[in-house]
Write a structure and sequence with these properties.
It is a single chain. This protein has a single domain, classed as Gcn5-related N-acetyltransferase (GNAT) (Aminopeptidase, 3-Layer(aba) Sandwich). It is an alpha+beta fold and 135 residues long.
């Protein structure tokens, strides 16, 4: 289910390890209110067991991109097709918003994620990452 400002109240309780940090309701509401943001959740038996979220990046000189900022499925629900279904839903929404390229990043030692992204048909590229985050 894609979360929007109209259905945010339908978000079910969250399983462990779905998000990196607890959701902050006011931040979640602000996030889903932005049309270019895509936030899709997987709910099984009244429990949020996975999510994918990202945004459309409008480009002035080529077609738009969709960037996946965060993607997670609780460990006890992995390898059941939930991640693939989340990615496909994200890709569909991104395409509907005009993006024809999706990109994401993961740590170079995250072998499970790398194998999963390859299984989705994504192409790995090595890049240098720079940040203002000092932690």
């Amino acid at each position: 289910m894609r979360l929007t400002d109209r259905n945010i109240d339908q978000l079910a309780p969250v399983a462990e390890d779905v998000f990196d940090h607890p959701l902050v309701p006011v931040r979640l509401a602000a996030y889903v209110a932005i049309r270019e943001n895509i936030f899709v959740v997987a709910i099984r038996d009244n429990l949020t067991v996975g999510h994918i979220r990202g945004t459309i990046i409008r480009q002035p000189d080529r077609n738009d991109d969709a960037y996946v900022d965060n993607f997670g499925v609780s460990p006890e629900h992995q390898r059941r097709g939930i991640g693939r279904a989340l990615y496909e839903a994200f890709a569909k929404h991104a395409g509907n918003l005009g993006a024809d390229n999706i990109w994401l990043a993961t740590e170079t030692d995250n072998d499970g994620a790398i194998a999963f992204y390859r299984a989705l048909g994504l192409h790995q590229q090595i890049v240098a990452y720079f940040s203002t985050d000092k932690t």
